Amino acid sequence: MLKIENLHAAVDGKPILNGLSLTIAPGEVHAVMGPNGSGKSTLSYVLAGREGYEVTEGSVSFHGQDLLAMEPEERAVAGMFLAFQAPVELPGVGNANFLRTALNAVRRARGEAEMDAMQFLKLARARMKVLNMPEDMLKRPVNVGFSGGEKKRNEMLQLAMLAPKFAVLDETDSGLDIDALKMVADTVNSLRGPDFSALVITHYQRLLNHIVPDRVHVLSAGRIIKSGGPELAQELEASGYAGVQAAA
Amino acid sequence: MPAVTETLETVQSVTDSGYKWGFETEIEMEFAPKGLNEDIVRFISRKKDEPAWLLDWRLKAFAIWKKMEEPTWAAVKYPPIDYQDSYYYAAPVQKAKPKSLDEVDPELLKTYAKLGIPLKEQAILAGVEGAGESPADSGRMPIAVDAVFDSVSVATSYKERLAKDGIIFCSISEAVHEHPELVRQYLGSVVPQGDNFYAALNSAVFTDGSFVYIPKGVRCPMELSTYFRINAKSTGQFERTLIIADERSHVSYLEGCTAPMRDENQLHAAVVELVALDDATIKYSTVQNWYPGDAEGRGGIYNFVTKRGACRGARSKISWTQVETGSAITWKYPSCILQGDDSVGEFYSVAITNNRQQADTGTKMFHIGKNTRSTIVSKGISAGKGQNTYRGLVKISPKAHGARNFTQCDSLLIGDQCGAHTVPYIENRCMTAKVEHEATTSRIAEDQLFYCRQRGLNEEEAVGMIVNGFAREVLKELPMEFAVEAQKLLQISLEGSVG
Amino acid sequence: MTAVASTGAAAFLGRYEGLRTRLPGARVAWVEALRNGAAEAFRAQGFPTRRMEAWRYTDLASVAGAVFGEPLTGVEDATEIPAAAGPRAVFIDGRFRPDLSTLDALPYAADSLARVLPTLDGRIGTIARPAEQPMAALNTMLFEDGLVVDVPAGVAGGVLELLSLATDSERAPAYHPRHLVRLGAGASLTLLETAAGPQAARYLHNPVFEIEIAEGARLAHGRLQQEGREGVFLSTVYARVGAGGAYDNFTLNAGARLARNEIHVALTGPKAEAHMNGVQLVGDGQHADTTTTLDHAAPDCSSRQTYKTVLAGRSRGVFQGKIHVHQVAQKTDGYQMNQALLLSPEAEIDSKPQLEIYADDVKCSHGATVGELDADHLFFLRSRGIPEAQAKAILVEAFLTEAVEAVAEEPIRAALTRGVAGWWQRQGVAGGIEEA
Questions:
Q1: Is B476 on the interface with A (CB under 8 A)?
Q2: Chains B and A touch (3+ CB pairs under 8 A)
Q3: If you count DSSP H runs as helices and E runs as strands, how many of each does chain C have, helices first?
Q4: How many Cβ atoms are within 10 Å of B16's Cβ, its own excluded?
Q5: Do residues C360 and B418 lie in contact, with contact meaning Cβ atoms separated by under 8 Å?
Q6: Size of interface A-B (CB pairs under 8 A)
Q7: In which element (H, E) is residue B212 found?
């Protein structure tokens, strides 16, 4: 489980998160919604351990471990996955090579045998079929020359392959058409179970029609100002953030 | 270098420096007296039982060398070399010349086994792990190897098999005796004795090297390779390689090299000459892995090499691919003289300098024939306190109508103590020629590192992967077995450069 | 090093020995020391030879083998110069002519170097590096005059013209003006420099500039080199730019038999900028060389360079450009492009762009292209009914446009556009180019 307590974080000395607390139990999917600048992406980067995102106060525990003390790759192999809002291009690095290296890093940490190229390809092809990805995407360099939609699909392929305990989706829905949106939702939903939880960060309610969250939180000025069930998302869609912010 | 099996021994020999080829073979050796003079030149010639013309050729080179000055224009720094404080001939003692591989000293065979070099012809080449994208090990080709140990060739495999196609693959010493007319015709025809200081030195004292002749219309059925090993202390290695591809022939040749870890600097001054006649193609690949010295810059090989190919025939092609990971200092400019109309020259290079390594490397493309084309792709990686310079010349003569060159030079810097330099020269005297040059410098972006680490790769793996991606355009030019080995080498070479 | 005894070098050294007591500042100790030091440097190096890496493509043998005379003094010559539109400093054969200059009522100081030399201690020879550049050494040894401009902090200096004219003298004079330009913090100036001379006159014009740009100051420096076709123009510009300052240099290198436009810019304070652009128009019998070095010696600086060379007839063009990023210069953004267009089978271009990088967080790139006019473009224009000669002229001007349009200062751009316009057509007549 993920437990965030009184989290304060700053970027370039400027406070962005100001006492955020959130607990996500195994098997649960939570959504965090909020206007631009409320700290949504900062939250995702702090959880993944990106340099330059300085935690000034508070704690995060992840399955009993002090998440904030861990290196980014330690968090990753412990099961923390971040689906990037803007997936990064790696020129010359083959997608298959990248994915297999990542998968084997995760498998080593889990005490599982590394996958050889054949096993890996079999698994990857199966997953790609589900995601409706052309096979040549394995040969192309990671995200280089991919369209926005292809990049998001590639993120979902990584999510499905690495099968983490926890996934943070940082506005994965932005810029996606309805088919791609359903693909994202299907990937997350297929992983749902007692050992998987997720934090879906989004600006809009529409993704939540497909990934129905257990809880919805409204983020404003770096804190959660309101929490509720899935109906909160509908409410936000209808009345906007201003209403909730005013009421808080 | 081809298809490396990591034996238990080599894994155990991995040292702190990560240079796992740094062991020394204990074997009885025979030396020429230390120092360099006419008598040494005569000694070498006599040892090899050479004809008079070759001795004269050597002596002429020595006379030229004595009048020359060591070049200083490269962006490399090192203390003066005492050319008298070195052995110019060092060879394992052999009772009689081995007639087959079975007669080669077992200690030498063990050495090559330890280095992962298959000398036995029947040896099934081990599969290579980690290929990633293409797991299918479709029937691996055998690789013929000429093994040069210090000053002499100790074994050459697949000679008889190749001879069936009329291909000559042997040590150059042997070629001097068996094929004097070819050696005499082509030796020094691409790199003359007085070409430069190191080439002159090599011409005077070269001890061995490989000789290849591919007859008309023959496509060499397997990769040919030479593996150079410096073993003895205070010894320079001066090998000479000559490859002739006759009309419509095709050959792919690989070169690898390693040396023990020592505090002293050892000189390796080789000359490689390639000749491609009409419609012939020579692909020459190098994975240069000489001992680079330690983190403080002690020891390591000075790799001062002259490599040049002449595209003499129409539509001929010479392609150089090099992965330079080793050596304390690299001074090397594999070049192409594009004489034949429509001939093609290529240069693909990855050079990496870590710790205190220095590399000044690049190419020269001389466009002489009509519609000659050349491509240069250079990827320099600097880490630690390494200094890496690309130096290249594209020269278009007035009659090279329609000549084309494209050059891409990219540098990657890892850390703020290293340097990356780009020094291209473009000299064009032909209106209808077209030359394009581009160069960039960058470092590994923070978001790329973070992305990899978020997927579970540690920092070194992430850097290795990004660097391999950066070098990919070049690595894909290597034969597959080499490419995998080269990728591993790049990663090993960067150890200690991050964090 | 041993003394180099070329005829020309010996003659200049001899002249220095003869004139040392009469040159400006002769009795000023620091000037004397400066000149003696430069003479030593010049004696040691002589004229540059092609064995020097920086001169591998430009051969000064014809200069080193010639003997030049002194410019005549006090000639009331009939040089016709256009009326000044604004402030202007005029030099004839390297000497300031107050009668032809208009430097009244300026918000800054502008004067003849010969007049104010004793007051310039610490300002001259501080940026130039005569020990490394023989032509700068020669200049330092023998300079007689020059323009000294001092724009105080915060002053917007507007446009100042610097006109250097050669006269038609039998004596083949050599002159070595030393120009000093200093801008205080936040000051600005547009300096529009023209060098010209009679087509048949033989002379050597060897100016050296030392330019100091303080924090936040901006100097736009336009240079029109339109010397006569028998003249030799060897100029060296040294500029130092402080934090947040900017140096914009545009050089049109069009005249002279032999021309070298050498520019060294050092960005010494954070966020300093340099924009360097230029066009070389090289006709039959000409040799034009642009050599630049850009030292990024402070963090967060940026530099942009675009140089275009067009060659016609039997001619030779040279571009050498080095970007040097020092270890402290993190976050450097450096870009350089040089392109050459060959219009004749007898033309030759040598290009050596160069990066020397010692900092890792940098973005640096350069590019070079060499080629002839695009056959497809030419065909397209002709298929629309445009005659070949005119089509070529259009394409040549299009090729140059990128460099010309990079010039932000309107007066400079206008002067430049005039300089470039019609060059190609003139080659057809003067250069003996075959036209369809």
A1: no
A2: yes
A3: 9, 21
A4: 9
A5: yes
A6: 99
A7: strand B210-214
**Rounded to the nearest 5°, which phi and psi values hold at C187?**
-75, 165
Q: Based on the structure, what is the number of domains in chain A? A: 1
> So what's the pLDDT on residue C77?
58
Can you tell me whether residue B151 is helix, strand or coil? coil
CA angle C387, C389, C390 (to 5 degrees): 65
B153 DSSP β-pair partners? B148
On whether the CB atoms of residues B132 and A117 are closer than 8 A, the answer is yes
pLDDT the model gives residue B140: 54
Q: Which residues pair with B421 in a beta bridge?
A: B389, C356
CB contact under 8 A, B423 and C369: no
Asked whether residue C287 is domain-assigned, the answer is no
- pLDDT at B295 (0 to 100): 87
A90/A132 Cα distance (integer angstroms): 22
- Shared domain for C39 and C179, answered yes or no, is yes
Structural tokens at position B173: 């010493």
C220 located within any domain: yes
Q: What is the ipTM of this complex?
A: 0.90
CA distance A27 to C252: 72
**CA C250: distance to chain centroid?**
9
Query: Residue A199 belongs to what domain range?
Result: 2-247
Residues of chain B with pLDDT under 70: 1-17, 95-99, 120-141, 498-499
Residue with token string 């206008």? C414
- Whether the pLDDT of residue C430 is over 50: the answer is no
Buried b (16+ CB within 10 A) or exposed e, A61-98: ebeeeebbebebbbbbbbbbbbbbbebbbbbbbbbbbb
Look at B415 and C359 and tell me if their CB atoms are within 8 Å. no
Residues of chain B contacting residue A89, judged by C-beta atoms under 8 Å apart:
448
Q: Give the nearest chain B residue to C53 (CA atoms).
A: B73
Joined tokens for residue C177: 């003006």
Report yes or no: C57 and C49 within 8 Å, Cβ to Cβ: no
CATH number of the domain encompassing residue A129: 3.40.50.300
The residue written with tokens 């009509």 in the block is B370
Q: Nearest CA to CA, how far is C56 from chain B (Å)?
A: 11
In a domain, C205, yes or no: yes
Kindly list the residues from chain C whose CB atom is less than 8 angstroms away from the CB atom of residue B415.
360
Q: Which of C241, C268, C295 is the last residue of a domain?
A: C268
Please tell me the total count of domains within chain C: 2
- Please report which residue ranges of B267-306 form alpha helices under DSSP H: none
Task: Show the domain range for C399.
Answer: 374-436
Residue with tokens 């510009």: C237
Q: Based on the fold, state whether residues C394 and C256 are members of the same structural domain.
A: no
Token digits for A90? 């790696």
Instruction: Please say which residue of C249, C268, C287 terminates a domain.
Output: C268
> Contact at 8 Å (CB) between C25 and C31?
yes
Q: Which chains touch A (3 or more CB pairs under 8 A)?
A: B
CA distance, residue A84 to nearest chain B CA (Å): 8
Residue B170, phi then psi, degrees to nearest 5 = -160, 180
What is the end-to-end Cα distance of chain C in Å, rounded?
A: 54
The Cα–Cα gap between A172 and A155 comes to 9
- Tokens encoding B406: 């494209």
Length, in residues, of chain C: 436
Sign of CA dihedral B99, B101, B106, B108: positive
- Say if A102 is an interface residue toward chain B (CB within 8 Å): yes
Beta pairing partners, B351:
B324, B380
Answer yes or no: is C352 within a domain.
no
Q: What is the pTM of this model?
A: 0.89
CA B272 to chain centre: 9
Residue type, A244: V
Nearest residue in B to A106, CA atom: B456
- 3-class secondary structure, B423: strand
List, for residues C182-213, the tens digit of each pLDDT value. Answer: 999 999 999 999 999 998 999 999 999 999 99
Decide: B214 and B249 in contact? Cβ < 8 Å: yes
